[in-house]
Amino acid sequence: MPRQASWDAWLKLGQDEGSVVADAQFVDPAKRDYGLKPSSPALKLGFNPIDLSTVDNYVSSDRRTWPRAEVKVVRHAMDYSPLATANKPQAPLRDYEDYAVGESDRRIGRRLEQMD
């Protein structure tokens, strides 16, 4: 879909005929539970939920992969919240804008100390 086009304009072009735009009705997305509620429109369309216990690394006699049968697998919920320091500005390690071509950068350490 072109960036400037609205959804209605996109549909008028004959695109996405039969698409359903609706709330998927996840169980609890805030807690990362993306199972579907019984009233989900996806289920009414015939979507079959996936048994997530058979996805990812799991012990199986049918395959020889990690994890080993003798190692217990523990899955923890992932935390995708931003790090507290992600937006903290950092001083540049080297600032080549202040140097002439071929000039040594030995003075940069003193300038960084002055920034602290």
What's this, in brief?
With 116 residues, the chain is α+β, with helices and mostly antiparallel strands. It has 3 helices and 2 strands, in the order αββαα. It has a domain of 27 residues.
Explained architecture:
The chain is of the alpha+beta class. The protein has a domain at 23-49. The chain contains 3 helices and 2 strands. A two-stranded antiparallel ribbon has the order 1-2. The mean pLDDT is 74.
Report the major sheet: 2 strands, antiparallel
Helix percentage: 10-25%
Contiguous runs where pLDDT drops below 50 for at least 5 residues: none
Global morphology: flat
State the order of secondary-structure elements, H for helix, E for strand: HEEHH
* Portion in strands: 5-15%
Structural class: alpha+beta
N- and C-termini, Cα separation: 49 Å
Which value, in Å, is the CA radius of gyration? 27 Å
Strand order of the main beta sheet, please?
1-2
Q: How many E-type strands? A: 2
Mean pLDDT: 74
What is the number of helical segments per DSSP (H or I, 4+ residues)? Answer: 3
